[in-house]
Each structure stands twice: as C-alpha cells, then as structure tokens.
C-alpha cells in the first residue's frame, strides 16, 4: 500500500510539474535575465565568498554576525541563481513578428486610461520590475490579445474596473 501511495504522489507531482506554464519572454527580456544571472554567478558570488572568508578570519563563528549575515546572503544569492537558471531553461521565446500592429502581447508597452481618467504605462512582461505587469496577472490577462482603442474589464482582487487601451508600442 505504501508503494501505491508513493507512486501516486510521484505521478501527481510530475503531472503538476508538466502543467506549469513556461515563461514567455521576448529576446530583450531573456537577455535581461541572462545578464542578471551572469552578474550573480560572477562578481556577486565572488563578493559573497570573499565576505565569508573575511568574516571567518574574525574568529569565533558562533557569535560572528558578519559571518552569519554573509552566509545568509549566500543562501539568498544561490536561491536567486537557481530561480533564474530554471526560468531561462524553461522559457519560450516569443516571436514578436507574428503579432498584429497595435495588438497587446508579451513585451508590449501599453498606455491605458481608467474610468476616472487616470493613466498608466505598463510593459507586459514575465520579468518583474517596476512598471511591468505579468501576462498571468489580472491586468495582463485582461490586456493581452486586445488592440488600441479597446475597452477591457479588469477583474482584480480589489474589484472590477474598466480601462481603455490608448497606445500599444512593441519593442
């Protein structure tokens, strides 16, 4: 009975893993992730290793704050490196040439106006940074596939609201 439960759990885990969607990235977004990975694996990793080495030289590790802080930073750094490697290995490059002019897609920079006249500019991107919306987010899902001039309904946790797509710029 234990084998059946274990194999069932493994099938469930593999099924969940295969259901995960790959990140859709433009060439520019992929290059940005690759550049961040190179920075972390190179200079940042070396700096953390040096910080650990220096902290060890201060003596007793049990009460050495610098050592523990450097080791914590190393753990966070290695976790980010694993995340970036996984994202790059499992990403799909978006062919931007197939998108119709004025259509919102991955990599588009979209200017929208809400019902109250508030405007914002958002890049549709799986690479999280200020001014971006994931294509899987409520805003991203509402915008992707629509065109300039369309009014879309955004169903967000804070409520539903309407926005008009003013402009769509492709990278």
Summarize the structure in short.
46% of the residues lie in helices and 20% in strands.
Q: How would you describe this protein?
A:
- The chain is an alpha/beta fold and 171 residues long.
- It has two domains: 2-93, Helix Hairpins (Orthogonal Bundle); 96-169, Transcription elongation factor, GreA/GreB, C-terminal domain (Chitinase A, domain 3), CATH 3.10.50.
- It is built from four helices and seven strands.
- Strands 5-4-3-7-6 form a five-stranded mixed beta sheet.
- A hairpin with a 2-residue loop joins strand 6 and strand 7 (159-169).
- Helix 2 packs antiparallel against helix 3.
- The longest helix has 30 residues, at 27-56.
- It is elongated, with a radius of gyration of 22 Å.
- The termini are far apart.
């Amino acid at each position: 009975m234990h084998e059946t439960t274990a194999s069932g759990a493994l099938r469930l885990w593999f099924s969940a893993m295969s259901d995960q969607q790959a990140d859709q990235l433009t060439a520019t977004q992929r290059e940005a992730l690759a550049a961040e990975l190179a920075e972390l694996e190179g200079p940042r990793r070396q700096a953390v290793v040096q910080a650990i080495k220096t902290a060890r030289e201060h003596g007793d590790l049990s009460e050495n704050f610098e050592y523990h802080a450097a080791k914590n930073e190393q753990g966070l750094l290695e976790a980010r490196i694993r995340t970036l490697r996984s994202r790059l290995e499992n990403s799909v490059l978006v062919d931007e040439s197939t998108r119709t002019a004025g259509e919102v897609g991955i990599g588009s920079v979209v200017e929208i106006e809400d019902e109250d006249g508030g405007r914002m500019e958002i890049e549709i991107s799986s690479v999280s940074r200020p001014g971006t919306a994931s294509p899987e987010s409520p805003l991203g899902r509402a915008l992707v596939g629509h065109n300039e001039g369309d009014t879309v309904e955004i169903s967000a946790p804070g409520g539903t609201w309407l926005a008009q797509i003013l402009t769509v710029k492709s990278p």
